[in-house]
TrEMBL record:
It comes from Flavobacterium flavipigmentatum. SMART domains: CBD_IV. Residues 1-23 form the signal peptide. Residues 288-407, 418-537 form the CBM6 domain. This is Carbohydrate-binding protein. Pfam families: CBM_6, Exo_endo_phos, Por_Secre_tail.
Amino acid sequence: MKKQKKSLIQLILFLFAITTAKSQDLNLKIMSFNIQQPFGTNWDNRKSNVASIFNVTQADVIGTQEAVNYQRDYIAQQTGYAWYGIARDGGDNGEGSWIFYKADKYSLDSSNSGSFWMSTTPNIPSRFEGDYNRICTYVHLIEKSSGKSFYIFNSHFPTPDLPNARLKSAKLLTEKIANRAIKTDPVYVTGDFNSTEGDAVTIWMKNGSDNAIKFRDTYRDVYPTGNVNTGFGTKFDYIYCPTDSKYTSLTSWVITNPVASDHYPIAATVRYNNSTTPPIPVTQVIPGKIEAENYSNSFGIQLENTTDIGQGQNVGYLDLNDWLEYKVDVASASKYTFDLRYASNSESGKINVLIDGVYYQSTDLPITNGWQTWQTITKNIDLPAGLHTIKIEVVKGGFNLNWFNFSSQTTSGLSIPGKIEAENYSMTFGTQLENTTDTGGGQNVGYFDVNDILEYNVTVSNTGNYNFDIRIASLEKSGRLNLLVDNNYQKSIDLPITGGWQNWQTSSTTVNLTQGNHKLKFEIVKDGFNLNWFNFSNNVTSKTSSSKNIVMEESDSNTFYPNPAKDFIYFNNEYDWIVYSNAGSKVLSGRSQLVNVSSLNSGIYIVEFNGKRKKLLIN
């Protein structure tokens, strides 16, 4: 039955390919632009710069955030762009996530366009948390000259002090995209996500285990490394596309002149490959995990949704002589453990593995008793270093494939299970070492700031859950770090206050690790702590010692960001505020949502607002 279905679909696709103009590539210029609300922000003097950016950039589609109705109308009048959307409080009330597009080039498919709110009641004005409703607007546009169509989803996420609401918003957004009416049409996402590149929400958008799509940042497609600032000294603004190899990012840039908002607009030229020409393959890194659907070339297969752990898609409808190819970059010549995740209903399967077209080995795949009953089979494979093509040939069909994982059997890093001294990192950014008075002496890592990094090369002896103990000290505020393995987000870890820079305490959680060599990374999300060591152990039973559990995040919606700051701080609302020096002298005051602190010297200050007093570090 599966085979008949595949043959019919292939015939339909063939006939479609020779009778439609949509086989051509779709080329777009997209921009994301937080216009900034007009109240107390000098709109009259900056609005001409906003219009100039629209007119000079000439993007096909612009996703905007924060503008109210008369800002929207001014932009449309001065630029000739058409717009679509409603405001976050309904109708024209409040800010909107308006989408502007070239009406002379594109037709709006209103039946497949709309808006929804970031909340548990997405069909009415509402919110997960915070002081404001949050809305996402999406359009389905059709290019008049070719009939090619595509989606743009545009949103403004809750502020950085609401991480749970932002993560819920990301998951709702992805769910809506996955369930769009015309799933075969390409989709791009614009927005002010209020999430830095190291933030858990950004990491989830790219690699979340329960993210059925997984997105690429088009800017990082073009510039994989280096600093980028779209406002407030960080990156909150993104243009995303799915990780599908049919999406190519050609150029990307941030528009810093003229200055028209407290955000800089970000733009990208992108291509979606609709043609039969094979897309530029994405190179997979070994050691590492390769999703089966991320092939560079294939014959005779189809994709389908999977219910396996992590969900996403699997490769199915595999018959004799079907094949998949993967472009890989092998870090070093070594014997690797090759894990293959597969499922079969009622008959066993078999594959051949070829490297650069040369036969290497065969692997039998026993029956698992269900198309979504998954099992991992493990083999050994010798791989040479460098760029290669791995080909999977189907010798006997009747199975599905979900992923492959390659882990080196050569020990090259710090051993897990085992204790790792924090100072034994392979790479760091922004940290310093100091002598510790903790038991055992030696040194600890300290002077952490937000976005600092520690990396460790580790070798994991066996796949499984590990107890993870971390030894920390903090003076007066809790910290937080993100744990990544091979640049894939694992979890966020909250660290308690211990009452002193050398008052040491061990906190515990659990981490799942796979066998082999890995790069373990700590990204600092909240600073204010020292780190002495961490330990991985096999025993995952509950601890009864004096070790304390990792604390949950404190809930406080009255805050500002960034902190530390250099030029500006941004409140989650408009407040009367006063900035005091550390000696208690008033140095700044006013009422606004954005505060210019560029005149302050480096040091510690106190910010008083809304009945609260919080420390501010100027660097």
